[in-house]
Each structure stands twice: as C-alpha cells, then as structure tokens.
C-alpha cells in the first residue's frame, strides 16, 4: 500500500465518521426541546445560536450538527466554559461560548484542510509514511483551534491595555465633575457622554446596571469583575468605598488617577529595562564580533606582510 492510498483511505474513513456524527446530532433530545420553555436564558442562547455567522447561512445550517459535535469535543479538552465566558466579556466580543467553540471548530477544520494539502504534496513528491502524514494533519487541526484561542487572548490583552491607558483621563474628568458639584451618578453620565473608547462603554454599562436597581457600589464591582484589569479593579473599589462611606469623592478620584499613572510609569521603566537587556544580544553576537574583526584584521595583515 502506497502512502497516497493510505492517506486517501484515512480521508474516506474520516468523512464517513463525520456523516455518522452528523446523523446522530440531528436527533434532538427531549431535554433540548423542553429547555427553551423552562429557562429564558436558554431561549436567548438558542436565538443567538440560530443567527448566521457567515455569508453562507444555508451551508452553515447544513454543517451545524457537525460543528456542535466538534464544539463539545473542544469543550471537553479545552478551557472551561465559565473561564471562556469571562474571557469573552473581558475582550468585549459579542459572542456566546457556543459561537466561539464553533469558530474554533472552523479554524481547526481549516488547519486540517491545509495539513491535508501539505500531506498530499509530501506523499506525492517524497513518499512519506502514512503515520507521519496523519500526525501532520492532526497537528495542523490542533494548531488551527489553538490559533483562534490565541487571538482571543491577544484581544483581551489589547482591550485591558486600552482600559489602563484611558483610566487616568476618565478619573480626572470624573474628579472635575464631582468638584463642580455633580453627584457620582451625574458625573458618570457626563463623562460617559463626553468621552469615547472602552472606558466610556464600560461606564455606560455600569450606568445601565444602576438604572435597573443595582446599587452603584455593586455596579462598580461588577465593572471590575467584567474587565479584569487590576488598575480598574482598584479604581472601582476605591470609588465604591467612597460612595458607601461618604469620603470626598474628588480626592479619591485624583488619588486613583495618580496611582494609575505611577503604575504606568513603573511598567514603562520595567519594559525599558527588558528592552535594554534584549538589545545586548545583537550587540554582543553581531556588532561586537564585526568590530573585533575590523580592529584585528589590519594588524594581522601587517604582521603577515612583515614576515
């Protein structure tokens, strides 16, 4: 059996397994049919799940059972659902956990498709072993799913960096509004209307929670839990404590802004120290040897000619 024949047989078996899984997934369970009528959150999740995520809704509906099977497999071996939901909130992505799992499945299948193309080329040109080709395809699929998770991690880091960068300015504006005679909620409304960015969106969400009956201190705590940035958590805790105990809010806001700026300066100095150490690598291994060669080569040439 040639490697190409083995690869084609593996692809055929994988396609038949997908067909069987698709057929089994189409059979709805009794619990799935009853759940939307019992819990409103389940009905909302089903509505979001039914919304198309690609420009090809018909194809998406056809492969949806297979994608759900892949999502359950990734959920079994990937990050927990609660952790993933928290990361989606921190990234500001309007996706449910099921939709993100579906994205991971699509990325994994795309990686497997690229791995299959590479495996076919290797089998046709170099005659690689079927085991190595199957390992290549599986590795490509796992790398595709991990790449989608890595992009989510990068989105979380970028959003938290924007929050930390915008927080001192927002805190100063809140201090000015409070010093001018505004209350805490009035200052939040004024700043959220006059600013743009991630912090303005979070302040609007906090105000919406407070209008629905949530106490302002609890809404600020939810803001800190929703974002996950430590400077914002300290800021929210300080403002919540000041609101509850009647501490002068303007002074607290100015102190929080100064603390965030000081933390940013320390982080910048630490980053500068790391970059300074990293610059020593090209200096020692590239520039210094070339300098030594230019300094020693004329002397060696003179000695050789003198001899």
Features:
0% strand; mainly alpha; 307 residues
Mind explaining what this structure looks like?
The chain is mainly α. The chain has helices at 3-25, 30-38, 40-50, 57-77, 81-91, 97-125, 130-179, 184-194, 198-211, 216-227, 230-245, 249-306. Helix 2 (30-38) packs across helix 3, helix 10 (216-227) packs antiparallel against helix 11 and helix 11 runs antiparallel to helix 12 (249-306). The longest helix has 58 residues, at 249-306.
Task: Point out poorly predicted stretches.
Answer: none
Shape, per Cα inertia axes: flat
Reading the helices and strands in chain order gives HHHHHHHHHHHH
Radius of gyration: 29 Å
Please provide the count of β strands.
0
Mean pLDDT reading: 76
The proportion of strand residues reads under 5%
Please, how many helices? Answer: 12
Biggest sheet record = none
How would you summarize the topology of this molecule?
Layout: H1 3-25, H2 30-38, H3 40-50, H4 57-77, H5 81-91, H6 97-125, H7 130-179, H8 184-194, H9 198-211, H10 216-227, H11 230-245, H12 249-306
Helix pairs in contact: 1-4, 2-3, 4-6, 5-7, 6-7, 7-8, 7-12, 8-9, 9-10, 10-11, 11-12
């Amino acid at each position: 059996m040639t490697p190409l024949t083995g690869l084609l047989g593996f692809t055929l078996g994988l396609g038949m397994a997908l067909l069987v899984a698709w057929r089994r997934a189409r059979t709805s369970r009794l619990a799935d049919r009853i759940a939307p009528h019992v819990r409103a959150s389940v009905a909302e999740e089903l509505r979001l799940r039914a919304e198309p995520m690609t420009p090809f809704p018909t194809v998406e509906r056809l492969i949806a059972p297979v994608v759900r099977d892949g999502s359950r497999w990734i959920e079994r071996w990937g990050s927990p659902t609660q952790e993933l939901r928290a990361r989606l909130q921190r990234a500001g992505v309007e996706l449910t956990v099921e939709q993100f799992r579906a994205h991971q499945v699509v990325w994994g299948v795309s990686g497997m498709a690229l791995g299959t193309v590479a495996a076919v080329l290797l089998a046709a040109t170099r005659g690689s072993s079927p085991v190595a080709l199957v390992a290549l395809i599986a590795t490509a699929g796992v790398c595709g799913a991990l790449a989608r998770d890595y992009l989510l991690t990068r989105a979380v880091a970028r959003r938290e960096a924007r929050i930390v960068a915008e927080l001192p300015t927002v805190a100063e504006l809140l201090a000015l509004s409070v010093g001018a005679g505004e209350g805490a909620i009035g200052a939040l409304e004024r700043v959220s209307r006059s600013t743009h960015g991630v912090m303005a969106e979070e302040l609007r969400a906090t105000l919406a929670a407070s209008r629905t009956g949530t106490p302002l201190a609890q809404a600020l705590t939810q803001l800190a839990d929703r974002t996950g940035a430590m400077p914002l958590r300290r800021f929210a805790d300080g403002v919540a404590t000041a609101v509850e105990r009647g501490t002068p809010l303007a002074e607290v806001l100015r102190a929080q802004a100064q603390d965030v700026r000081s933390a940013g300066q320390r982080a910048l100095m630490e980053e500068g120290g790391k970059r300074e150490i990293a610059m020593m690598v090209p200096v020692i291994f590239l520039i210094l040897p070339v300098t030594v060669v230019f300094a020693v080569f004329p002397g060696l040439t003179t000695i050789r000619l003198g001899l």
